[in-house]
């Protein structure tokens, strides 16, 4: 089954890259549904498998009779499929070995304009919102209309009583729709 899925994905990406007329790609609702489904966590194929199969399929043909033309990499056609606009920033900083699956590629797109944290380490215990609220953290919506889920702001402060601390977590508004699951 993995082989059928991989062949479908490779064919779809190449048809999109070469702008072949295809009923799945000519209607935006079909293309967007496929994009969303490919990014769902339960539909992930390991990226290295797709990349290896793509290389086997593409490198087996020399249709250019020794010309200098090179076929695009699988990473390039993946980026082009998921993001038709400018993806040069992500593409230039990635290699196929960095990407684990399409959800991970989506994460790279989301992180493109946000610096990574200087603190390294693993979060061992991340309490749920209810426990945070019970421990005194107040949740506030960020006033600006930022649409990036990564714009979080955590403040520590003191209330009028010196030994009482006040914590506030400002988060962006989250609009829940069909794209929420693959986004998160």
Structure in words:
The chain is mostly helical and 184 residues long. The protein has 2 domains: 2-63 and 71-111, no CATH class; 129-172, no CATH class. It has helices at 2-17, 23-26, 28-39, 47-59, 74-82, 88-93, 102-111, 129-134, 180-183; strands at residues 137-141, 153-158, 165-171. Strand 2 and strand 3 (165-171) form a beta hairpin. It holds the Pfam family DUF247.
Summarize the structure.
The chain is mainly alpha-helical and 184 residues long. It folds into 2 domains: 2-63 and 71-111, no CATH class; 129-172, no CATH class. Helices cover 43% and strands 10% of the residues.
Topology:
Blueprint: H1 2-17, H2 23-26, H3 28-39, H4 47-59, H5 74-82, H6 88-93, H7 102-111, H8 129-134, E1 137-141, E2 153-158, E3 165-171, H9 180-183
Parallel strand pairs: 1-3
Antiparallel strand pairs: 2-3
Helix pairs in contact: 1-4, 1-5
Pfam family, one: DUF247
Which segments are poorly predicted (pLDDT under 50) over 5 or more consecutive residues? none
How many β-strand runs? 3
Structural class: mainly alpha
The helix count comes to 9
Pfam family, one: DUF247
InterPro entries: DUF247_pln
Characteristics:
184 residues; mainly alpha; 2 domains; three-stranded mixed β-sheet; 3 strands; 43% helix; DUF247_pln
